[in-house]
Amino acid sequence: SQKIEQNSEALNIQEGKTATLTCNYTNYSPAYLQWYRQDPGRGPVFLLLIRENEKEKRKERLKVTFDTTLKQSLFHITASQPADSATYLCALDLQTSYDKVIFGPGTSLSVIP
Amino acid sequence: GAVVSQHPSRVICKSGTSVKIECRSLDFQATTMFWYRQFPKQSLMLMATSNEGSKATYEQGVEKDKFLINHASLTLSTLTVTSAHPEDSSFYICSAMEGDYGYTFGSGTRLTVV
Questions:
Q1: Of A43, A98, A100, which has the smallest distance from its Cβ to B107's Cβ?
Q2: For residues A86 and A53, what is the distance between their CA atoms, to the nearest angstrom?
Q3: Do B105 and A44 touch (CB under 8 A)?
Q4: Which residues pair with A25 in a beta bridge?
């Protein structure tokens, strides 16, 4: 069956450390993989997109890796800050006959001062 | 950057009535918009893909007669929840894609059916 899994537990880390979130998928072949941030009661905000032929993408303190063999993406936030506390969603863009984006369950990140 | 405006942000309606939610792309044209619903502490579930000038594509298990989608222009898509029941209470979010880089989401609509 098809599924997307993220860190099953909420992630608590100390300020200044690097947070690493995982996204694993089964029986999908995404053309792109995206990461979003969602704060309570708000819509997701796009962070990064990585294509299937890219290994790594960076944006400021964010880094995403994409391993299509392992069917896994890692999302890193370096020098984490309390303001980074939120739920992070990975999303697979399936590029079917129409654009279709499937979201993972999300990982709740808390950065402790 | 791209902005998607969603209205209303919150609505409370009586069981059996209909509610319309609007989603507008403010500074770009969106031939395709997406509608999601999200239950507390759960991820977004794609309900349907809204295409300008044609019928929406609904995901399996989503009742098209209950969740009416209209995409009459390149900047506006609407979702109407008809004959709403308490189990329809949820957080509804729309999104659109500008260019080739990620999706922009509206701020969501919290629907409560009493």
A1: A43
A2: 29
A3: yes
A4: A4
Chain B neighbors of A46, CB-CB under 8 A: 101-105
**Sole residue written with tokens 């608590």:** A12
Residues of A in Cβ contact (< 8 Å) with B92: none
- Beta carbons of B25 and B2 less than 8 angstroms apart: yes
Decide: B102 and B1 in contact? Cβ < 8 Å.
no
| Cα–Cα distance measured from residue B110 to residue B98, given in angstroms and rounded to the nearest whole number | 25
Contact across the interface for B102 and A42, Cβ inside 8 Å:
no
Q: Is the dihedral of CA A103, A112, A64, A59 positive or negative?
A: positive
Mean pLDDT of B55-78: 92
**What is the rounded CA–CA span in Å between residue A26 and residue B21?**
34
Question: Which residue, among A89, A75, A21, A71, has the nearest Cα to B95 in the 3D structure?
Answer: A89
**Looking at residue A113, what is its pLDDT?**
94
pLDDT in tens, A48-93: 999 989 999 999 999 999 999 999 999 999 999 999 999 999 999 8
Q: Which long-range contacts (CB under 8 A, 24 or more apart) does B49-56 make?
A: B49/A98, B49/A99, B49/A100, B50/B77, B51/A98, B52/B77
CB A44 within 8 A of CB B44: yes
From the list A41, A43, A106, which residue is nearest B43 (CB)?
Answer: A106
The contacts of residue B29 (CB under 8 Å, 6+ apart) are B74, B75
